[in-house]
Specification:
The complex is a heterodimer. Chain A is an alpha/beta fold. Chain A contains eight helices and ten strands. Chain A has an eight-stranded mixed sheet, sandwiched between helices. The relative contact order of chain A is 0.13. Chain B has one domain: Alpha/Beta hydrolase fold, catalytic domain (Rossmann fold, 3-Layer(aba) Sandwich), CATH 3.40.50.1820. At the A-B interface, helix 1, strand 1, strand 4, helix 3 and helix 4 of A face helix 1, strand 1, strand 4, helix 5 and helix 6 of B. Strand 1 (about 25-45) of chain A pairs antiparallel with strand 1 of chain B.
Amino acid sequence: MRIVIALALGVMFSLMGTAAMAQEDIVLRGMGSFHVGGRIAEVSGKPVKEIQRVPGGPMSKLDPNGQFMVEQMYVQYALPKARKGKYPLLMWHGGGLTGVTYESTPDGREGWMNMFVRKGWDTYVSDAVERGRSGFASPDVWSDAPIFLNYQDPYERFRIGAGEGSWNADPPRRKLLPGSQFPAEAYDNYMKQSVPRWLGTDKAIIDAYVALVDKVCPCVLLTHSQGGSFGFKVAEQRPDKIKAIVAVEAATAGVIANAPKLKDVPVLMMFGDYVDEHPRWAAYKKTDMEYGNAVKAAGGTVDWINLPEIGIKGNSHMMMQDKNNAAIADVIQKWLVAKGLVD
Amino acid sequence: MRRLVLTLMAGLIASPALAQSKEPIALRDMGSFHIGGRQIEVSGQPVKEVLFTPGGVPAKVDPNGTYQVEQMYAQYFLVQNPKGKLPLLLWHGGGLTGVTYETKPDGNPGWLNYFLRKGWDTYISDSMERGRSGWTDKFKGDPVFLPLGDPWERFRLGPSGSWNADKVKRTTYPGVQFPLDAYEQFMKQGVPRWVTTDDAIVAAYIELVDKVCPCVVLVHSQGGSFGFKVAEARPDKVKALIAVEPSATGSKDKVAALKMPIAVIYGDNAKEHPRWGKIRQNVVGYADAIKGAGGNVEVIDLPDIGIKGNTHMMMMDKNSDQIADVMQKWLVAKGFAD
């Protein structure tokens, strides 16, 4: 099924001239995964339970006390045989999501993970602590409750629809932003990618990202949304190991007082369409700009790309899944080449 | 970096099976998707103001509305030169995710890479509620979190009383194949599980089978029960089933549907184990019922064919390739691979 779609897309793309590459094999000299970071937490004073792990199976005791492995992070990597990126490329997703952000798009097209592997980057896609394959800790360890997003929330907040009131349960009555590049017909599939998030776990998330950086870097970071804040904060701690940051719609940036630590780390800040019209994203952009200016004031390099200004219109907050995601990946690649990070 | 060096070193010092790991893996495609699930409505809850990022912009989050729940994540790797005649689906066990089949806790390649190198188009999923499938607070009951020591004895690294928080005081079965130094690393793969969600898990697996099969399904532990149940529901699409240490079965009154070849594999110290002995006996009874109805099941106890020391997590054991070889041979013998 998928193959038929891939072939059909391949035909369409080659007509459009972009995607002979979609039909080429991906040849990897290595692929795999690992967990990094984490700590052992102690729980005590809770009663022992007797549970049946499978219906029809025998009862077994479960002691909720003791030591638990918590706050580790999952990372999957694909290493192309023909490596061209000078450093590994680490892709960090945004809030309420996992590394799946960068895999196949909700409508089944190729995502940025495959695109950057095809461009010759050793690519590491992780699930932030608490999300996806990183697992999450019990309420005995993390006391606050996670939040869950309903269908309406990302549609209006991620600039797919035209702001508040644009969502409707009935698809024909949804108000998509004019010219939106988001594959709106696959919005249900996008919602299947979302996972719960906690609001009190930033430190644990950052600690695990630092452990990842210590393991696989020097490297280039490509971050999205909430991941932008983590990327800048990790770079402030490990400026010697981060060779560049591509921050896609960072929400928010790092700590202004630490911005000078990034003076030798080239930064690209990128925003999609309809940002200035959206009060929330306009505010994030302003925060990012203040941080970027602080990096520049310390002698650093910060480049800004507002996609509509270079003629790329209609991009949502989830631009790596938008229909023109290949064009945006090309913009990023061009910047990385210009910074001397590609052989 | 270190991982690569490890792989190369392993290639140099170890068996012919590992020598092949220096060859690149050529894929005609790789990707992922979510499947299944349903929408639920939540109403009557107060709107919250949420600060998503410290120093960020507060956002209103209305907990009412439509939610997506019970979907399942699957990732696929399609080889350049398929030798397996059908896709191979790898389903993990309880409290774990598809990571079970990826790189082993000691950093060596796992069964995913093994089967790709043998030419199988391979699909790895995270069962509904686990890993990248996401979860909801609308499941019945509370999730179960495994203490650090729990699998040590329950997964037969050591007998009863062998676990100790102090590494040097832990004991094991003689000749155990699990990479003991990587036990903590294994525990990083654990995720919470509910014990009330089997029907939704099976429903999502059936959707996966409807999307990508006919196929061969390889299941582990809790996944065993799901594999048997899905094979009962889709006997025309599950063309072969390998059940690695299944912890439960399907229904004895539905076995007449199961005419596909089935292999059941148990590791060492299972028959005598107070818990695994019972589980295995139950599965053998189910296998007998399948055979009684004209089906084709082989129960392979690894020690009986000279492969000793394997734990419940045999896909992570040091000799995991040797066990994969047993399965690959079985698949070839049954005509599913060239």
